[in-house]
Design brief:
The complex is a heterodimer of chains A (282) and B (328). Helices cover 77% and strands 0% of the residues of chain A. Chain A is mainly alpha-helical. The N terminus of chain B is likely disordered. The chains are: A mainly alpha (282), B mainly alpha (328).
Chain lengths: 282, 328
Amino acid sequence: MTARTIWRKSLNALMLSITGICALVTVSTLFLILGFLVWNGARSLHWTFFTNLPAPTGEIGGGIANAILGSAKLLLVAASIGIPIGLIGAIYLAEYAGAKWAFFIRYAADLMNGVPSIVIGIFAYTIVVVSMHHFSALAGGFALGIMMIPVILRSCEEFLKAVPRSLREGAMALGASKWRTILTVVVPAASGGIITAILLALARVAGETAPLLFTAFGNQFWSSGFNQPTAALPVVIYNYAMSSYEDLHQQAWAAGLVLLGLVLVTNLLTRMVLGRQTAQGR
Amino acid sequence: MATLSTTAGPVRQISRSRALLNLLRDGDELAHAVTLTFGASILVITFLLIYELWIHSTLSRQKFGFSFFFTSTWDPNFGQFGSWPFIYGTLVTTAISLIIAVPLGIGAAIFLSELAPPKLSRGLSFVIDLLAAVPSVIYGLLAVFTLVPLMRHTIEPFLKRNLGFLPLFKGPAYGVGFLTAGIVLAVMIVPYIISVSREVLLAVPQDQREASLGLGATRWETTWKVVVSYAGAGIMGSVFLSMARALGETMAVTMVIGNQPKVAASLLSPGYSIASVIANEFAEATADLHLSALTELGLVLLALTLVLNGMARVLIIMTARKGSGVAQ
C-alpha cells in the first residue's frame, strides 16, 4: 500500500468512528437527564406531594396538587382550541385544497411552528389578558392552543393523506357525498394516527413554560373556573428551581420527574403504537 | 356526486330547489366552506400575530426608533430602553450553541443515515425524537443544579488557566453566563439538527453513493464529498431551523445566563438574552412604554425566526425535490 492509501484508509476509519461517537454522545444525553431526575426527584416523591397545596413560603413540605390540576385545565382549554382548528384544517388540506392554497397554509403552519413560545405568550397577552384585564387559565390555555394548531394540522394531514384512495372511491361509488365519505370512511380510517398526533401535541405543550409566565401567571392556591390565574406544573418547576430554599429545590426535582415522566410516557406509548400501525399498513 | 338524478319532468319549482341542492351537492359545498374557514384560520392567526405585536410596540418604536437596537441603557424606572445587551446576549449564546451543536449533530446524522444498520439507526432516532420532546424547563432545571456548579468549579477555572490570555476567558468564574447558556442551548438543538439532517441525507439517491464507491472512493470520501455535498442545502436548512430554535429558546437560557444586562467580551461573564428579559419582566411591567419595549423585543424575535424558518423550509424543499428529480 502506498502512503496515500494508508492515509485515506486511516482517515476513513477515524472520521467514521467520530460520527459514531457523535451519535453516542447525543443519545446518552437522554439517559443522563433521566438518571439525574430519577436520582434527585424520587426522594421527594410522596403521595402527599400529589394531593397537598404548596406550603407557605419558608415552611417545609407541601405538594403540587393545584399545579397538576392547573396544567390539566390549561390543556383542556388548549385542546378545545387546537384540536378543532388543527383537525378540520387538516381535512381541508388533505381533501379539498388546491395546490396553491395548500402550499400557503402549510407554509404558514410551518412558520407558526417555529415561532418562539414566548412570542406566542405575548400574542395571548395582547389578545386575552389585555381584553380581560387580568391573568387567567383561559389566557394560558389560549397560548398553548395556538401552539398546538400547526403541530396537529401538519401531522393529521399526513395521516389523512395516507388513507388509501380505494377506500374513498368505494364509499363514493356507493353514492356517499364527499363530506360523508370523509366523515364516515376517511377520518375513522385515520383515527389511530389522528389520536397519536393529538396526544403528541398535548405532550409538547404540556411542558411549555414561557408562554404561561404572563398569561396563566401562577397561583399558590386552587383556582376555581377558568377565569383566575392558575398554577401549572412547568411554571412551578421554574419558580422552585430559581428560589433559594433547599426544600423547594427538592420539590422542583420531584415535579420535574413527574412532568418528564408524563411527557416521555405519552411519547413512548404513542410512537410505539404508531410504529406498529405503520408496520402493519405496509 | 348525486347530480345524475332524473330530470325528466320539466317542473319549474322542483328544478329550482334541485338547482339549490345541486349547488350544495348534498352539503358538499358547505363542508368545503367550513373546512376552508378552519384551514384559512391559520393564515389569519399568522397575520394577526404579526399585527398585534406591531400595534402593541408602536409606543416604543416611535419613541426610540432604531436607537432601540444600538443603545445599552435599559432602565424601566426612567423610561429608557436600549436593547443592545439583550440582542448581544442572544447572538453570542446562539453562536456558541451552533459551534458546538452543528458538528456534533451532522456527525451523528451521518452515522445514523450512512453507517448504522437500519435497526440501530431506527432505535437511536427514536431516542433522539424523545430528546426533542423533553421540555425546556427540564433542561434548565438540570443545568442549574448540575452544569452550573460543574462550570464554576471545574471547567471555567480550567479554561482560565489554559486560555486565560484570550479576552474570551477573562474575569471571575460565576458558573452562570454566556458559555453555560450556549452549552445548554447546544444540547437542546442537537436533536433538531440530527433529525432534519438525517431525513435530508436519506433522501440522497442511492446511485450517487454507488457511483462514488465504484470509482474507488472510501466510505468517508463518498459520504463527505458526494452525499453531504449533495444534501448541503438541506443540511444548511436544518442549521437555520435549529438556529431559530436557539434564538427563541427562553426557559433554559433564563435559568443559566445570569440575567445581567452586560455587554462583555468574556464568555464567562453573566449576560441577558431577548427571550429572558421578556420572561423576567413582562408580568411585572406596569408602564405602557415598558410593555411596549418588551413587545418590540418579541417582534424582533418573531422577525428573526420567521426569516430563518422561511429560508430553512425553502432549502429543505429544494433538496427534497433535487433528490426525487434525479431518482425518477
